[in-house]
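Regression test case RT-17, inverse folding.

Input:
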């Protein structure tokens, strides 16, 4: 996806809640593990289970630091 703000290529990933410890950017969704424990996680959601963390698919622009998501 192309960033509508600056025209750079956007990265695909997910925004995932960390069990009351913030929202993290991940390259892919993780189940059964707090996202803050995932290497590369950077620290607004669907949930499909009691012990899974809420998430939403999104795109981010590393150039202008915008995130686009649908909910």
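Golden output:
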């Amino acid at each position: 996806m192309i960033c509508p703000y600056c025209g750079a290529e956007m990265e695909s990933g997910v925004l995932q809640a960390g069990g009351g410890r913030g929202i993290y950017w991940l390259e892919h969704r993780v189940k059964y593990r707090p996202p803050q424990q995932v290497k590369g996680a950077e620290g607004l959601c669907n949930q499909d289970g009691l012990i899974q963390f809420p998430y939403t698919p999104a795109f981010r622009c590393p150039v202008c630091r915008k995130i686009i998501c649908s909910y």
